[in-house]
Design a protein that fits this description.
Layout: E1 7-8, E2 19-20, H1 28-47, E3 49-62, E4 67-69, E5 81-92, H2 93-100, E6 106-109, H3 110-114, H4 119-144, E7 151-152, E8 156-161, E9 176-180, E10 183-184, H5 190-195, E11 203-209, E12 217-222, E13 224-225, E14 233-234, E15 237-241, E16 245-246, E17 252-254, H6 265-276, E18 287-289, E19 292-293, E20 299-300, H7 305-314, E21 319-323, H8 327-334, E22 339-343, H9 346-355
Parallel strand pairs: 5-18, 18-21, 21-22
Antiparallel strand pairs: 1-2, 3-5, 3-6, 4-17, 7-16, 8-9, 8-15, 9-10, 9-11, 11-12, 13-14, 19-20
Amino acid sequence: MSTEEAMVPADAGDAGTPTIQRRRLWPWWLAGGALVALAAAVLAALTVHVPYYEFRPGSARPVAGLVTSSDVDVYPPESDIAYTTVSLRHSTIASYLQAMIDDDIEIVEDDVVLGDRSESENRQFNLQLMDTSKQDAIRVALVALGYDVPITISGIVVVGVVEDSAADGVLEVGDTILSIDGETLGVASDVARIMDPKKPGDVVTLEVEPPDRAATRSVEVTLVAAGDEPERGIIGIQLQPRDPNYEYPFDIDIDSGNVGGPSAGLAFSLGVIDVLTPGELTGGLRVAVTGTIDRNGNVGNVGGVVQKTAVVTGAGYDVFLVPRDEVDEVRARAGDNLQVIPVGTLAEALDALASLGGSGFETAAAPG
């Protein structure tokens, strides 16, 4: 084996004797310092947060196994309906750079996610949204099956204030309205009953309790016209019942674990109906679902549909039921290997599944 060393010219007095110059070694402390600096840079990239959040593909979770009930006949399906999730991650330097080149990850500024809330407050807020959505979903399913499910509440919580509306600057997210024009809000239908006859320009008096449930205050709000119904007066808020008590005809619940947000509502309603009715609601197909559900069975938009579609296609589902307004975005990501069906109500979702060979709503075992 031969090796080459660096040769340099000899001095005049040593013309016949070449001199060998050896490579200079780094001092150990310099090499160690470079390694420490590199490790620190890598650690910083992995742990130092930047003011962004990432919506990443999450998971598809079957619903039927999460439904628990007693004192009622159940029919666990063989082919299940799954709800879809998005993974929300606070960006680090490294994850942000990786997200920049991944079309299935959406990056948003942190105030878009948090608003005025801290991370822990935002987490608690989303868990509350999930709990309310879950109870609404169960109730909608039971009502569709013919059951009566009254709801008692302790007021309505403001979860959004429309900019430049009558409520802007008067109400804040987290406030609870206890009464309207002196009428206590004791059941969920009270708000619609009281507000239905109101016109734009009418003044209503609200009894409002702050988030810490301290002393209440009385405020007056001049109603504005609803955008789609100019003869109807509205306050200009998004709301949800506080402390809802659903009087179910039997014990029933859904184990949602640590998942937050309201976007599993439609999947939960379908899953409950599938468990409580004979036959296969999906017709044996693997069906994933996303979309909120309100107390009237209407399907609402959700966030992160691109990320959820990535989950559904990756897991090999056959069908994806999605909110009508978001179908174009879903289809653009889904490609040709996934059947995407837009729906606007629970009834439309049930009809869609029946058209695919499912057992259909006609098999629902209504009470009595």
